[in-house]
Structures are given as structure tokens and as C-alpha cells.
Amino acid sequence: MAKKVALIFGVTGQDGSYLSEFLIKKKYIVHGVKRRSSSINTQRVDHIYQDPHESKKNFILHYGDMTDATSISKLISMIKPNEIYNLAAQSHVAVSFEIPEYTANADALGTLRILEAIKFHGLEKKSKFYQAGTSEMYGKVQSVPQNEKTNFYPLSPYGVAKLYAHWITINYRQAYGIFAANGILFNHESPRRGETFVTKKIVSALCKIKVGLQKKLFLGNISSKRDWGHAKDYVVAMWKILQQKKPDDFVIATGKQYSIKQFVNLVCKEIKLDITWKGKGLREKAFSKDGKILIECDNRYIRPLDVNTLLGNASKARKKLKWKPAHNINQLIKDMVSAEFKSIN
Ligand code: NAP
Ligand code: GDD
Questions:
Q1: Is 169 a catalytic residue?
Q2: At what angle do helices 231-242 and 14-25 cross, to 10 degrees?
């Protein structure tokens, strides 16, 4: 039987790298889209590319950009993939307040460009489409926990752009019969998480503080709560969503939430770093045993609007996809901490 062919936009990101590994294990041929940058941006997939068994044969990289309709259209018509995963995005919520127009172009119109290319090249029946939707679309949450029926209320240019992508995916599914599906994924982390997302920033800084390589960690709003899973588990859900008989939308989450402060405390417990919190609100600080300030707030990390709480209900995915997370928060932290110490030593 011929191998299935997947095309991943955003292959160089956290999820793109885990999804590539997962699909290659499933014997797919994986085409990935990377964008041009002045410094190397393929670190997360270099190990696949350099593997003599996979390189050139099963894992092929192409240049493209979500803001460039021609490159997207050309790749889709040339590859004619069985499955297209749109994981490419300007994915940082705080940054989306600084570059809202670019975020809308890449995250909202980028999705439209892929869907249009599928339609234009007559691939409606050939290419299934997965859209990387986000719990950030729930924003000012309208009910707790959030599921597929919860109303959206995005609070960031990123959330608004992703909401357009969500609805245009449904629109092309209904109008043109494309197998187009949305995953509404809650936060998911891993050792490969981008350095400026809060979990990675905390793990990285606290491990360095522990071994004397860093003095302080500056954070923003530590009272906000997130439902954090492991990226390795979440890419499995993406694939399962495209293996269904009919295209549909699914919330993917753990159903447990922790505040940023609780996450800090769990990491400190894991690495045996003694801290004591003092003060309230933005003045709250964490001190070492000998009274040094280790963690404090910096206004630069406070967003114009923040999503204070996210908690997902993934019972539809558990039932229909037979999906459930294999990692809990402690296993996630263990994985991130051990990778961090390896990279420091
Ligand atoms: P990530 O690590 O930031 O990866 C984003 C990917 O998109 C990278 O490969 C990046 O390339 C690429 N990209 C950015 N702008 C692009 C453009 N203009 N053209 C082409 N490629 C572009 O994000 P992630 O955590 O893997 O998340 C994957 C997707 O899921 C994203 O769409 C994100 O918004 C969404 N999502 C993530 C979470 C989460 O908690 N991780 C939750 C819900 C939804 P470079 O490597 O060159 O930067
Ligand atoms: N990044 C960051 N840096 N966030 C901080 C900091 C800090 O120094 N201090 C506190 N926070 C708070 C943020 O204000 C937010 O409430 C929370 O930590 C989580 O921030 P991020 O880790 O940046 O993630 P996010 O929830 O905003 O966005 C991530 O999850 C979304 C799914 O809900 C991203 O991966 C998005 O792409 C994804 O869609």
C-alpha cells in the first residue's frame, strides 16, 4: 500500500517536531514547511533530518510562509497531501498585542490561504485539513469548564485571529465538503517549548538559579490559571482528529488547572529549591532561605488584557477519539526539568 503523505505548516515549532516524529513512526512521508530566517530555525527537527534512514526519503523540508499565498498554493498542488496540518502561527499572545496586523495575516489569513489552495487545486476529496485552534479563543470564559459548545470571547489579537481561522475552517467544510477539522487545544508544553512561554521560562530560570547560573526570575501575572498538558500527547490527538469518519471539532485538555505560582512551587519541589512567598498581587516576591529575592514581578510581562483562567473539558475527545493524556503535570515538569539540566551541564 502506498504511504500516506502529510504536509505540516509550522514543522519547526514545538508541535510540528513532535507531530513529524509521530507520523514518521506511523510510516507517513512527511513534508514540512519552514520559513526563511537569518539564523537557523530547524533545531527541533534537525535530528529527524539528519537521521540517515529518514533524511530525504521520509522527511522533506520546503521553504514557504503563511503570508505568501503563492508558496502555499505551489506546495499543496505539488505534494497533493492526504493530510495537511496547519500548526504555523505567530503563537505568542503577548507579542500579538505588539504586532496585531502580522498576527492576523499569518494566523487568520494564512489558514484561509491553505483552504483556498485545497479548493483551487480540486483537492477537496483528497486532502484532509487540521487547524490548530486554541483555548485562547475562550478568553473571558463564558462557562467553566470549557467544551466545544462554550461561547468564545477572545481577549487578544492572537485569539481573535485564531477565531477567524476556526470559523473559516468550518465554513470551507460546510461550503465545499472539505474534510476540515479544528482542534481546540489547551496549553501544552514540553522540553521543546519556546523559551518565552511561561512554563519554559520558569523551568529554565529556576534550574539555572539552582546551580548558580542565574540570580533572579522576572514574571508577570502569576495568579492566572492554565490547563497544562504535554505536547507529545496533544499531537496524537491532532492525528486522531483526522482519522475520524467525519470532520469535527474537538477540545483537547487535561481537565486540571494550576496557577503560574503553583507551577513555580511544583518546579521548586522537583528541583529541591526552597522559596518563601511574601507580599500580595504585583508586589508578591519569592525569597531564598538566606533572604535573597529570587522571583519578582516586572510590569513588562503584564499584558494589556490577560486570560485569567482556562480549564478544558475533553470528554468528547475521550469518547469519540479514545484520547486521553498520558502525562500529568508532575510528569511534564520532570521531563522539562531533566531536559533543562542536561542542556545546562
Ligand atoms: P510554536 O512553537 O510557536 O511554532 C509555530 C510554528 O509556526 C513554527 O514552526 C514557526 O516557524 C511557524 N511560523 C510562524 N510564523 C510563520 C509564518 N509566517 N510562515 C510560516 N511558518 C510560520 O507553536 P506550537 O506551540 O508548536 O503551536 C503550534 C500551533 O498550535 C500554533 O498555531 C499555535 O498557535 C497553536 N496552539 C498552541 C498551543 C500550545 O499551548 N502550544 C495551544 C493551542 C494552540 P519558526 O520556527 O521559524 O518560528
Ligand atoms: N509568557 C509569559 N511570560 N507569560 C507570563 C509571564 C511571563 O513572564 N508571567 C506570567 N505569565 C502569564 C501570562 O500572563 C498568561 O496568563 C500565562 O502566564 C500563560 O502565558 P504563556 O505561557 O505565554 O501562554 P498563553 O496561555 O498566553 O498562550 C499559550 O497557550 C495558548 C493556548 O491557551 C500559547 O501557546 C498560545 O499559542 C496558545 O494558543
A1: no
A2: 60
